[in-house]
Specification:
36% of the residues lie in helices and 18% in strands. By secondary structure, it is of the alpha/beta class.
Length: 383
């Protein structure tokens, strides 16, 4: 299977201040990827949040022209309210935006790390309105509570582009670029079903370590996996919040081991960092995990370190969530600059990664997708 080639980059966690950044690699769409969730579609077209002003920026609150950007060929100022720095995925997401929205590319990126504090994130957006930036990018920590501040952005004539996690209670944004988290959860379930069948495992007793509360990534992955679990009569013994962090994953796993030792044979971690923490907890307790061990370990994100663990057989399967949204966000901004209407939703291309070459594909939502066996080449090319 072909692989997208991306540069391998690391990025130090950034503090809750304003920083600018730098370059990128395309999300790419290749043969095996999962772009089944929708692809670019023009559906929606509800550009209440900015459409027209974005192209001209001649509005009372300043918009494009006040910030010196917009259509006049000058620098485009972008405020980015990032979730935080909780995971490898987040680091890759931040880096993607800093790379694309660099000074060299004609941007002034105002970056705020909101440290997983949703009130701080709303305030960061308000700060961008005061600065009269040209565009605002938001990765919403939680999916609710957005309509008021997005209305303020709309009133100020500043287009908002949402990336990654979704907003449930407002449509006052121009475009969203991200992943279908329910599809990811369904994929994990469908893979587990096929895997258990192949290995002759008749009973599934699963523990889920969820991501942070109220995040659409958590909600979608939880719902998708549960749907398959319910359909197959699996037992989900417990499902607790590990905050998408390694420490959180370890803590939840330690408490699971105290309560359920000997009673579970599957652990589903909603990101790689939680999986690393869960591995430490299981190792400390003398519980074996991974390929043909006592516990089947499943993860999401599939960043470089996660894929290394799939290759070594510590993680059985890892469901990719592509963090390199910035090139698609830039496309949206260019469309707005040109006075065009961007798509309301843009879905990222993703792969499902496994250690063993025993199942070639799974079908999710009626669409068949290949499984990718992790090789060193794949690890080396991953973000
Ligand atoms: O899975 C996790 C991160 O929102 C998809 O947030 C993102 C999630 C990702 O902290 O690692």
């Amino acid at each position: 299977m072909k692989r997208k080639i991306v540069s391998i980059l690391t990025c130090a966690a950034l503090t809750a201040s304003l920083l600018a950044g730098c370059g990128s690699s395309p999300a790419g769409s290749d043969a095996g990827g999962n772009d089944t969730a929708g692809g670019d579609d023009a559906a929606g077209g509800d550009d209440a949040a900015g459409g027209d002003d974005a192209a001209g920026g001649d509005d009372a609150a300043g918009g494009s022209d006040a910030a010196g950007g917009g259509n006049d060929g000058g620098t485009i100022t972008i405020g980015f309210a990032q979730v935080g720095h909780e995971s490898d995925w987040r680091t890759a997401s931040t880096k993607s935006c800093q790379d694309v929205f660099s000074e060299a590319n004609g941007y002034d990126l105002q970056f705020v790390d909101c440290d997983n504090d949703s009130a701080a994130q709303i305030e960061a957006v308000r700060g961008f309105i005061q600065q009269a930036v040209d565009y605002i990018i938001v990765d919403p920590i939680v999916s609710k509570g957005w309509d008021t501040v997005l209305t303020e952005c709309e009133d100020a004539g500043i287009p908002v582009i949402v990336i990654d996690r979704t907003i449930e209670d407002s449509d006052k944004y121009v475009s969203w670029v991200g992943s279908n988290f329910k599809t990811e959860g369904l994929a994990a379930g469908e893979w587990l079903k096929a895997y258990a069948d192949k290995k002759g495992i008749s009973e599934i007793n699963a523990l889920v370590i969820e991501g942070s509360t109220g995040a659409s990534a958590t909600l979608g992955r939880t719902e998708g996996f549960k749907e398959i679990a319910d359909a197959n009569g699996w037992n989900i013994i417990d499902s607790q919040n590990g905050n998408f962090t390694e420490a959180g994953g370890q803590e939840v796993m330690e408490s699971y081991i105290k309560s359920y030792e000997g009673k579970f044979n599957v652990v589903i971690c909603q990101n790689d960092n939680e999986a690393f923490g869960a591995m430490t907890a299981m190792k400390n307790a003398g519980i074996s995990y991974g390929v043909d061990k006592d516990v089947i370990l499943v993860s999401f994100d599939a960043c470089t370190a996660g894929l290394e663990k799939v290759m070594s057989g510590d993680i059985n399967a890892d469901f990719e969530c592509n963090p390199l949204a910035a090139p698609d966000v830039e496309k949206v901004i260019k469309q707005l600059q040109a006075g065009e209407e961007p798509p309301k939703e843009v879905y990222m291309t993703e792969h499902w990664y496994v250690n063993e070459d025993i199942i070639s594909s799974i079908t999710v939502d009626g669409i068949e997708q290949e499984l990718t066996v992790v090789t060193q080449e794949i690890v080396d090319a991953q973000y």
